[in-house]
Structures are given as C-alpha cells and as structure tokens.
Amino acid sequence: MSAARLSSDFSDADEAAVAARLPAYLARSYARYSNFTVASAVVDDQGGVHFGVNVENAAYPSGTCAEQTAIGAMITAGGRRIERVYIAAGSDAVVQPCGACRQRIGEFASKTCEIVSVQGGAATVRTPFWSLLPQAFGPGDLE
After folding, report:
1. Which GO cellular component does the record give, naming just one (predicted)?
2. Binding residues for substrate
3. For the chain, which terminus, N or C, has the lower number of CB atoms within 10 Å?
4. Which residue ranges make up the annotated binding site for Zn(2+)?
C-alpha cells in the first residue's frame, strides 16, 4: 500500500481523511479463512500515512495482520516512529491490536502513540498504546 504524506503536525482534518479512506481498504484484505477483514493505517512522526490489510494463508494462522503490513510499509518508506495506528474491521466493531501486533507496534511507538478505532469511516475510540502493553520488553532492554 502506498504512503500518503500529510502535514507533520497531524490535524483533525488529516485524521478525518485517513479514517474516511480506511474502510475502502477492507475490500483489499485477503481473509479467505476467517472472513474477518481488517485494514490499518500507521502515521509516522513525519506525517506519513502507511496503509495495510490482513493477508491470511492456507497454513492458518500464519497470515499477516493489517498492522504488521502497515508497519512494513512505513519501514519501507523510511519511517521509524509511530504516532498513531488506525484500525477498521469489516464487522465495524471496535478492535484492538492482537498481542503480536502490540509487540510490533511497541518496537516503533512514540511515548504518546495512540490506537484509534475507525467505524463507519470516522475515528471513534482512542486508546493510549502503552496502556495496552505496559512494562513491555523493547529495544531499550537490549542497550
């Protein structure tokens, strides 16, 4: 998925634009086995927006989560710090990252990183990321 560049001080209008685009990405998800589509957008510290979808595999559950795909797109584009993660599910439920994705996000999350649920093309529930992964093992533990 391609990156969009928004202002480095991410505005309410920028957020609304990302939230409005995210549901369209659900159609690109490959959820053949679970039928649970997920789309994600990661916003880096430069205002870059990187989209991803879940991609399942016949050797279920060795697929790729939407957040993981979006993080990979961010890294490929040169980003290294996550400010926000937007998540939309085909069920339109409020969903949070799975445990593995929490660890993946934690590798790059800023101190103020937020997880933002998207429902009906609008940002709804906000969760401070570090409340989802307290006392995490991360890069600092290896220094």
Report:
1. cytosol
2. 54-60
3. C
4. 65, 98, 101
